[in-house]
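User: Assemble these into one structure.

Assistant: Restating your components, then the assembled model:
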Amino acid sequence: MLLKRKRSGAPVTAPAASAGDSRPALLVAEHVRKVYRTGEIEVAALVDLDLTVQQGEMVAVMGPSGSGKTTLLNCLSGLDDIDAGRVLLAGRDLFAMSDADRTTHRATSMGFVFQAFNLIPVFTAAENVELPLLLGGVGAKEARHRAVEMLERVGLGDRTGHRPNELSGGEQQRVTVARALASRPAIVWADEPTGNLDTQMASQVVDLLHELNKVDGQTIVLVTHDPTIGRSASRLIRMRDGRLVDDEQLPPAGEPWAGGRDATMQVEG
Amino acid sequence: MYPNLTPFLVALLGAALAVAAFIAVRRPFLRKLALRQVARRRGEAALVIAGSVLGTAIIIGSLIVGDTLNFSVKQVAYENLGPIDEIVSSASIANGDEAARQVERLRGDPDVDGILTLRGDQAAVTRGSGSRRTAEPRASVWEVDFAQAAAFGGAADGGSGLSGPAPGAGEAVINADLAKAVGARDGDVLTFYLYGRPTGVRVARVVATKGVAGAGNGSVSRDAFFTTGTLVRAAEAARAAAPAAAPKGAGPGAPAAEPHTFSFVSNTGGVESGNKRSDAVAAKLKAALGPLASQGTSVEKPKQDVLKAAVQAGNGLGSLFLFIGSFSIIAGVLLLVNIFVMLAEERKSELGMLRAVGMKRGRLVRSFMIEGTVYALVASLAGILLGIGVGRAVVVVAARIFNGFSDDNGGFNLAFKFTSVSIFNGFAMGFLIAFVTVTLTSMRISRVNIIAAIRDLPNEGGRRLKRRWVALSTVAAALFGGLSAVAIAGSKGVGVYLYPSLAVLALCPLLVRLVPKRWAYTGASLAVLAWGLSANTLRPKVFDDGSTATFIVLGSLLTFSAVFLVSQNQELLTRPLRPLIARPTLRGLATRLAVAYPIARRFRTGAILIMYGLVVFTLVLITVLGNLIGATTDSEVANASGGYAIRADFNPSAPVADPARTLTSGRFAGQVAAVAPLTVTDGKVTNLNPKFTDPLDVAVVGAGPDLSENGLFPLTKRLDRLGDDRGVWRAVQSNPGYVILDQFLGQNGGGPGSVAYKPGDTFTLTDPRTGAAERKTIAGILKSGQGFQGIGGQVFASPLIMSQTAARAQFGSAAKLAAAFVKPAAGVSDEALAAELQGQYLPESLVATQIRHQVEQQFAANRGFFQLMQGFLALGLLVGIAGLGVVMVRAVRERRRTIGVLRALGFQAHTVQRAFLTESSFVALEGILLGTVLSIVTSYLLFNNDKDLQGADIGFPIPWANIALLVLAAAVASVLATAWPARQAAKIRPAVALRIAD
């Protein structure tokens, strides 16, 4: 079942699909440049970068430390400013928007999964998950209903009232995934989602992401250091020194995830 | 102030500094670490210093207020008495001359460097006529040998104060105060009413009001000096003109008017140093006077009395401000704890690393101690300057209030002054408080989990207390329980509140093993709160020792327990806010976050709530009590006047003849409904209560039966067997052994206390002139003695009322007709009648006081004082606001990542800002409301327990407008204080907050 997605604004252009892919382009980045300045020292984190992500793709981004993976994710999601180029998401130029509009766009069109989970410590699991829904203007009851539903989907139906410090690392990351997906975003950005997890928990989380991508057609851009996870995606991009050095379309089924098991919608806790 | 504390403080300060120096020298690594932390984190260092500077400033400010009052009262001694150390006074010329001869025998004594005999009396003085006439009804007139006066007290600083050529016949030398009162200059002609007869006198010259030229009663001395013989001749002339000089209505045996004879004695040494010989010289004088001492000649030590009063007044006022400031100091300590915990949180990973590489916990504490010593030293030094500023501000406001005590601005002049002792004591106290706080906090924060600290993980939850600690605390609870029983049985102020609370606290470890933690803590805090609010109902005498410590303990216990109760049940209390919080809007989400954080961070929220609660509790209590007292004006006027609207005081040497008849006939017929003449003299009370070690000064008022027949001064307590108030007043008339006292005999300010005597108690009343002593029984206690305050010019003595017959029997001719209560006829204005009486009886130096005006003036001064205390307390509010600011700065730093997530999820920047502002407002408002509610409940209970307030029929008026203003001001200030951190939070860029190294 394909999740219904909310879109904001009308598309400005119809981005071209990548070669051999008939799916519409969801994200188009053109000549993106990002420079970090520390005093008089300038470091180019992204150099004239072009990237197109089709709807329903699961793109893995890999590269050595300092290659610009996280910067890419931050810039393409509009979390960070860029120095040159443009980024279109669902046809809308992120950096042509005001900060407030970009923030609203993020709330309605994007989901995030971070390495450090980054749940709001004073909120329960359900409150964390319903947060983007409420931000997107969903009513309180409906938001809670959908949050609980989402938590049940990630196998945490019995942990809705627990605060982050009462959950294991894997559980926390599953809450993060639930939060990222709760508002049915156009794209989910996952930055090292398994970096803080042991193998078993990492496997549960990656299984979940695969499942969401395959079953729901959820577009996911995933930054990882783990080659097995990287090769399990539908497309693998490699970065070095702020540049895309390799863009590999993987077989549709993807390479089997080493720690993976049969994907189920209910993940054991 | 408090020079006796200095050695103790020197020892403690020395020990603290020595320990810090020892560690710094012995462990260079720790020193280096500590000092570099100070240098590296200058912003934080400034924050800690700012946090602890207020404590020192408040202490020094309080001590300076004490210094100023002490100095100002002493100034009165220097200005008005100069070289005069002892005064030998005789009411008759014959006795005076004999006394002077005996006193002269001490000339040449090594303790005495001057003796001056002069005669004096009271007279009215006017200048001009008609509408341009200016008058001073109560001037002191003296006849003196000017040559001897100039030589008197030669060694004293500034000389005798009266020098220069003697005035000629029909001339007088007047002092500056009298000149100012009537607007006179050299050469002006004044009219002196000597013994009721007008005499034209030319002003030979005006001299400064000091030394002999400033000798007088109280702080106001308006003196005129004539050549020897002037007063004696005037008295003789007055007697010759009116052979029956003994005033009618003064009763049998009233003496013929004649000047009093005084021998001023100056001790060897300066103005202040000579005072040390006063006891020895007074003893020699009494020995020299022999039988005269029991025949109406008395020896007084005015300078010693004034200097003693100066110390008492200074200590009283200083300790009052220290008492009020103590709540702010406690808030300051909490602020310091909070800041230091924040510092430790920021250095968590660093601390973890230090522990990981082998630094023992003790060394970590010592490193913090060195750092803390640096902060405490700098803060205490800076606190000196700020404290001087605070003291100066308080003195400026207090000076206005003191000047308002009397219509002619003659109340009291405050001269700003501080002593090195106060500065040192304040510095040492401020330093030690900061040092101890920092050291104890260091011990707590050095207990880090190494891994959690290095990985910046949240702290582990509290570990279960070991069984032996539970057992030990239970034993301590039993011990405190025992102490509580003893304290409660004896109504010991501090003990009654403190021990039961400590017992409950010590019982908590056991309770949490038996019931859920929240129940245990909720029950314990409820128990302490309930006890704090109700203890004085069960033990009404709990405040009787007058100790301010009781109030500090009570205020702190109420606030701490209430905050603890609230902290444990925040979810429950915020449940009504749910509809607001659950709103699916950005505002609703911001509110949800704003409430969620303070609820989750119990310790820091609790610390802020205590800071706010404590200060607001005191502020509102002062506001409510001030308002309550203000609301009693009408009942106080009724109690103080006893149905008489005016009190007329006149010159006992030239009294209004037969006032009961004179003031109700002639031009006053129809204007005056009734008059009650009174005799006045001074007496000493002993054996009343063991707590009074020195004899107590009283103004002995002799009243006739008409006082209680034409009016009635209500009593707060009465001897049951005598019936109602009227029955008691009648018993006083019929039984010379009965007297009526007011409520303030023996109280010299400095703190609240209660009446240390009751009807039925007996004591000894002595005539200081003759030594005649009689046993008296208290028949009743006045609801208000204010109508009698200052009667017969006895400003500082408490009134003692007995029958006029009994007064004459014991005090003889010293009990002089000097005052009368006047009841205006219906429809006659008090003000107009008072002015008319004063104009008509100027020769008799009549001063008509409207009792309502006097009460209102007193209330206005009290109001001013309450406002001053509120202003002083506002400093504490600053501490609370600063604390909130610190917490919010800390929150922004800690929540950078969370802010990044929120922004990533779609929180707008202004929503983040709103969330922070809402959070600070929530905490501030919660603290303010908690303090306000607690304060109103406490003041209601105090009101309910006070029979006088209950009887005033004023209800329980709550000054909502004032409280609302206070709450609003505090809330707005709090929001403003957190505006900066909130803006910083909004500025955080999500990618920066979330950035993880690639």
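The first helix of chain B runs from residue 6 to 26.
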